[in-house]
Amino acid sequence: MVKSVLVVDDQLGIRLLLEEIIKSEGHVVHSFENGLQALHFMKKQTPPDLLVIDFWMDIMNGAELIEQIEAEEMFIPTIIMSGAAEEVEEHTHQFESVKKILAKPFNIAQVKQDINELLTSD
Can the keyword Phosphoprotein be found in this entry's annotation (predicted)? Predict the structure, then answer.
């Protein structure tokens, strides 16, 4: 079954790479430059099956986005990406949605594995 994934990262290269990886696994992907754009999209669309979010962004960072989503009673499995993964754990442990923290730079095989694992764990 085709699943939908929402990618949020302020770096175009990361967004394009993740889009390619996710599409190659047979899933639909929507990507956004910041949390605010993603939140507006999610309010108008069916919620995605998975979120892949950069933690450090200028306009609505990853924690702020997850907080807003969970406040709407949406608990979507989420992968947080960061160059400072250990520090991010301190800021995200309270969120029910966060299932994985992915250190940047990331290994493509690991990204595929994490995405597929979360999309098949219903």
Answer: yes
Distance CA 67, CA 69 (A): 6
Q: How distant, in Å, are the alpha carbons of 25, 64, 109, 118 from that of 97?
A: 22, 13, 23, 11
Q: Please tell me the predicted confidence (pLDDT) of residue 122.
A: 61
Query: Is the previous residue joined to 105 through a cis bond, with omega within 30 degrees of 0?
Result: yes
The structural domains of the chain, ordered by start, are 13-81+91-109 (3.40.50.2300)
- Tell me the C-alpha distance between 10 and 56, whole Å: 8
pLDDT-based confidence at 70, cuts 50/70/90?
very high
